[in-house]
């Protein structure tokens, strides 16, 4: 069962990498960033209504508030900032920066909430990841003359993912499908003001088969199936193990962008991606080691 969930985690990571390019394809068809976000969230929510438990209430006020926070951090913050980053830059660079989200979440959970002293490996990982992000920014802004706005937006999205993961880690009492449905429901409500603030999308463009196909992939594949499977994977193998598969996403995005979408990344950018992912793995290993040391000290006491 555990091996199956590792396979599912890798598939979700590949889905999310492909979703970056699917989103940019919708931009080329005249659909705005928050229009893409709202449309795919609504379609995904409609599917989850059919497959998720039919409960309206999460079971307690505390669980309902957590579902609301989950929706706010995932849809308008993470999803909105990611879509805006993709509108200003290329997908591969954005994916590398977004990959830092899981490590940020682990660090917040361990250093701030658990107050565990960080391991030296974590500091080494942070230095490696920070160096990798800097090289990725240099590759985009200096070597390929891309907008620095995209990098800032991607960094904000990575922090939003960290907050989302932190809330999800503490949402134990709600089934994965129900948590995903309620996450999208609250998230759609929170994202609507941003949708109304951007330029309206032409209704006629939504009848384009390319638009329909990409929306269905983004909503039913990357968002609905991805959310449910990711929640399930975390419930079975844990957030720490699942995060390792999340690190596959930037490399998949680099390969897809290079082979199919003519995105350019120099050796410096590739080195930055490698340093970022190596740093994330080292950082998480350090957090795990610090938690084990803290647990041994508590047992000894």
Secondary-structure blueprint:
Elements lengths: L1 H27 L4 H19 L9 H28 L2 H8 L2 H13 L6 H24 L4 H22 L6 H22 L11 H29 L1 H8 L1 H13 L6 H34 L1
Helix pairs in contact: 1-9, 1-10, 1-11, 2-3, 2-8, 2-9, 3-7, 3-8, 4-7, 4-11, 5-7, 5-12, 6-12, 8-9, 9-10
Which descriptors apply to this entry?
301 residues; mainly alpha; 12 helices; 82% helix; globular
Determine the number of helices (DSSP H or I, runs of at least 4 residues). 12
End-to-end gap? 36 Å
Provide the helix percentage. over 70%
Number of strands: 0
Please give the radius of gyration in angstroms: 19 Å
Helices and strands, in order, run as HHHHHHHHHHHH
**Computed structural class:** mainly alpha
Mean pLDDT: 85
Largest sheet: none
User: Which residues form runs of ≥5 with pLDDT under 50?
Assistant: none
Tertiary shape = globular
